[in-house]
Amino acid sequence: MKALSVKQPWAWLICYGIKDIENRTWKPPEKMKGKRVLIHASAKPAGHLRDVLNQEQRDALSADICINGHDDNCKPSAIIGSVEIVDCVINNESIWADKTNLHEFENSLTGENGCIPIYNWVLDNPVLFDKPILNIKGKLNFWESKYEQIECPLCNTMQLHDNSDIGVPGWGNPVHTCEKCGYAILESEL
To answer: How far from the centroid of its chain's Cα atoms is residue 157's Cα?
Structure first.
């Protein structure tokens, strides 16, 4: 499954369902729109939550989140959740969207300056995993992870499955034990 490295606390805010925009200077490939990607918390953070938010973002969060920061389970260098990329626009109205000066951008198209647009990737359906996968080295751009997100058919918990161990031939073999309820998820149920 494809993964995307994002600095903390942005990675946690995305997976927790607070931050609905990821800002990049490049567009995601069209084939990634509508797809779910794993969110990898980079080794190097952007800073502490209270230091990286603007006033409008602080006002939108609960006081507890702003003061205490993000969940201790969301360590750096870890796959912590997933999200769907549903669109890519410039100057989304979300408080999480960095803005592009459209006048400067239009002038750069005529060669008058070198304004680089900021693309706002619109995100939806976030999942924060109960048990992140720690000590994973990230990469630039999208990268292929050996993990897949699966849903337990018994308790509906989303979790990660290591695809490198699907060496068991045939259908009907247990390939993953649910981390929450202990159900043996069969290959045919994936």
So the answer is: 18
Q: What is the mean pLDDT of the chain?
A: 84
Joined together, the tokens standing for residue 24 give: 């990049």
Where in the sequence is the domain holding 134, given as residue range(s)? 2-145
In 4-85, alpha helices (H)? 10-15, 49-52, 55-60, 63-68
pLDDT at 72 over 80: no
φ/ψ region of 112 (left if φ > 0, alpha if ψ in -120 to 50, else beta) reads alpha
Q: What is the pLDDT of residues 121-161, one digit of tens each?
A: 999 999 998 888 889 999 999 999 988 888 889 999 888 88
Element (H or E) spanning 5, and its range? Answer: strand 2-6
Same domain, 136 and 152: no
User: Are 124 and 135 found together in one domain?
Assistant: yes
Same domain membership, residue 135 and residue 62: yes
The predicted pLDDT at position 18 comes to 92
Residue 12 CA to residue 126 CA, distance in Å, equals 10
